[in-house]
Amino acid sequence: MADFAGKGNRKPQLDIPIELIDLDPLNPRIVSYTNGRKDLSQLDLITVLYEHFDTQTVAMSLVANGYFDEEPIIVVPTSIPAGLSFENFDHPDDLANELKKFVDDGSIKFTVIEGNRRASTIKLLLDKELRDKVGIEKSYPATENENILKDIRTIPCIIYSKREDVSTYLGVRHIAGLLKWEAFAKAAYINETIENEIQKGTEDSEAVKKVQEIVGDRSDSIRKQYVAYKLFLEARDDLEFDIAPLINNFSLVTVLYNSPGIREYMGVQPYSKVNLKERVVLPEKLENFENVLTWIFGNSKKGERPVLTDSRNITNKLSYVVNNEGARNYLIKYKDLEAAFEHTNGEKEFLSRNLTKASRAIQTSLQFAYKYKGDEDLNKQVHELEELLNALKSNLS
Fold first, then answer.
1. Which candidate among 19, 283, 284, 316 keeps its CA 20 to 30 Å from the CA of 363?
2. What are 13's strand-pairing partners?
3. Confidence of residue 391 (pLDDT cuts 50, 70, 90)
4. What CA–CA distance (Å, rounded) separates 358 from 137?
C-alpha cells in the first residue's frame, strides 16, 4: 500500500466521548500564548483557549444548536493499545469497529489535532467545576437542556494514526488553503514540521523542501518564515525581552529580516545562506539584535517604547540609521528615529530615487505627448509641474 498522508479513500470516523479526548499542547495556534511550554495541563490549555480564542461564541452556538455532525474534529490516539496496528486494516470501517471496542471500555484516549477550540468549549459547557477553576462560572454560556448536553458529550471524530499525517493536512488547509492561520501560527507549524524532519535525520534543505511540497510553495517563503521563527526563538530564549508584540505582529519580524541593512547590523546571513542547524544571530551580536527589536516592538520588560510609528520606516529609515554610527548612536541616546535619520544619507538617497522615478516618467510621457498638443487639462498639469520643479530647484540652489 502506498505510503503517503492521504492514502485511502477516507480515515475511520467514530463518535467519541469528550472525556476520552485531550487538548493538544503542540497546537500551532496556541504556542504564541504558552511561551513554547509542552508541560501544560489540560486546565492551562482550556484557559488559554478561553482567554484568546473566543470560545464563548462557540459555546453559544452549541447551546442553541448542539453539535453539527458534519464538522468532525481530527484526533490521534494518545497511545495505541498493545496489539492494535492501523496498518493491519485495509478498510476504514473495519478499523473503526476495532477502535470502538477500546472506546467503549475506555482503554484508549485521543489528542485533538484539529478542533481544539470546539473540544475545549464542550468541556467547559459540561463541567461546572471546570468553569469555576477558569473563573468564568457566572459569565460563560450554559444550558440545562438535557438533549443538548447529551448531544455534545459524544462528538464525531476522524482518526489518524499519527500526528505527522495530520500535519500534512494542516499545512494544506491552513497554510495554502482557504482557512489560513495568522502569520505566527503558520511559522510555528512550519518550524515544528521542519524540526521533526531534521530530528529524523533529514537534511535541513530536504526538510524545507518537504514542507514546500506540502503547501505548494514556489517562492521560498517557507524557508524565510522558518528563519524568522528561529529569530523569534532566539529573542525568547536569549534576551530579556517581551515577546508578545513579536507574536502579535510577527510579519514585521520577516520585514526586518528582509532588510539587508538591518541584517548587516545584526550580523546575520540572507535566508538563502543561513545554516538552519545553527544559530541565526551570533552571541556577540545579541545586543544589536535586541536594539532592533526594541526600536520596532518596544520592550516592556525594560520600560522601553518602540521608536517606530509606521512599519514602513523599518525599510525606509531604520535600515539606513543602523549602519551609520553617528545616526545609530543618536537613536540609542535620544530614541528619535526621524532626527536620527537626518544624520544619515538616507534622506538624500530617498530624494535621489524619487527624482529618478519622476525623470523616467516624464521621459516615457514624451514619447506620445505630441498626440495631445493643445490639450488644456494636460497643459495645466505641465504648468503645475513647472512650478514644483522651480520650487525644488530653489530649495537645492
1. 316
2. 158
3. very high
4. 64
Are residue 243 and residue 320 in the same domain, yes or no?
yes
Tell me: do 373 and 320 sit in the same domain: no
For the stretch 370-382, pLDDT in tens is 999 999 999 999 9
Q: What are the grid coordinates assigned to 304, written together? A: 522601553
Considering only 71-85, 176-190, 333-347, which range has the smallest mean pLDDT? 176-190
Question: Which residue among 102, 129, 162 closes a domain?
Answer: 162
Helix, strand or coil for residue 15? strand
Cell digits of residue 307: 521608536
Q: Are 74 and 157 in contact (CB under 8 A)?
A: yes
The pLDDT value given to residue 1: 39
Predicted pLDDT of residue 103:
96
pLDDT of residue 174 exceeding 80, the answer is no
Instruction: Kindly state the helix (H) or strand (E) to which residue 12 belongs, with its residue range.
Output: none
Compute the distance between CA of residue 179 and CA of residue 276 in angstroms, rounded to an integer.
Answer: 29
Amino acid at 227: V
Distance in angstroms (rounded) separating the CA atoms of residues 184 and 228: 10
- pLDDT at residue 7 greater than cutoff 60: no
Spatial separation of the C-alpha atoms in residues 311 and 209, rounded to whole Å: 31
Report the number of distinct structural domains present in the chain. 3
* 122 has a pLDDT exceeding 90: yes
Helix, strand or coil, per DSSP, at residue 368? coil
**What's the domain range around 380?**
367-397
247: closest CA among 184, 297, 198, 295?
A: 184
Residue 176 has pLDDT above 70, yes or no: no
Domain boundary among 323, 341, 359: 341
Together in a domain, 157 and 67: yes
> Are 252 and 297 contacting, i.e. CB atoms less than 8 angstroms apart?
yes
DSSP for 159-195, please give it: E-SSHHHHHHHHIIIIIISSSPPPHHHHHHHHHHHHH
How far apart CA 225 and CA 180 sit, in angstroms, is 15
Banded model confidence at residue 4, pLDDT cuts 50, 70, 90: very low
Report the candidate in 199, 231, 197 with the shortest Cα–Cα distance to residue 211: 197
Cβ atoms of 18 and 122 closer than 8 Å: yes
What order of strands is seen across the sheet that includes strand 13-17?
A: 13-17, 154-159, 73-77, 110-114, 21-22
Nine cell digits for residue 48: 488559554
Which range has the top average pLDDT, 151-165, 169-183, 282-296?
282-296
